[in-house]
Design a protein that fits this description.
184 residues; alpha+beta; 8 strands; 40% helix
Length: 184
């Protein structure tokens, strides 16, 4: 999926509107292990992943607590820091080489000044809301895994099971049991 397709998933944009948004995007690349957002920094941009994978986590834990996983075709940002313009409690790090398209908060403001139609770009922020599901104890480990399997299969291809288990808020052993039952 390219950035034009990703924008059309957010809302219907005309060809001219897509071109206007794309002019505001800045291509940027990072190497495996690079930090895109450090704990304590304010998130100033949303990034569209053209290629690669990144993860958001709590640094300093004995085993990093994975907050979010993102692969090609996803938008990534620290939602709380971006919205409140306050220091991030998490870090965003490259799991592998990534090619991104950066949409800064300043670019979003510039787009909105051109047309109120661009307010709809706020839907990019909704992607951060799905992770609340994994904190919700009403979902079983099997339901959580099924969601990833059906809705975000690229994560299962990109990330090791230990990181996926952390993201789903289950132990690696539980994930192994769920996966074996799921494939039967």
């Amino acid at each position: 999926m390219d950035v034009s397709d990703a924008l059309l998933k957010i809302a219907f944009f005309s060809k001219e509107e897509i071109e206007t948004i794309i002019k505001e995007l800045k291509p940027i690349s990072f190497r495996k292990g690079d930090c895109i957002l450090k704990k304590g920094d304010v998130c100033q941009s949303a990034y569209f992943i053209q290629k690669g994978a990144v993860y958001q986590y709590v640094p300093g834990e004995s085993n990093d607590l994975v907050i979010d996983l993102h692969a090609t075709g996803d938008w990534v940002l620290n939602q709380a820091s971006f919205i409140a313009q306050k220091p991030s409690k998490y870090e965003i790090r490259c799991f592998e080489q990534v090619d991104l398209m950066e949409l800064s908060v300043h670019s979003i403001h510039a787009l909105i000044q051109r047309s109120s139609k661009f307010f709809i770009l706020g839907k990019i922020l909704e992607q951060g809301g799905e992770r609340a599901m994994f904190f919700d104890q009403t979902h079983s480990p099997a339901e959580k895994y099924k969601y990833i399997f059906e809705k975000r299969p690229a994560l299962l291809q990109k990330f090791p099971l230990k990181m996926i288990a952390s993201y789903l808020k289950i132990t690696p052993e539980t994930l192994s049991r769920v996966r074996s039952a799921f494939t039967k």
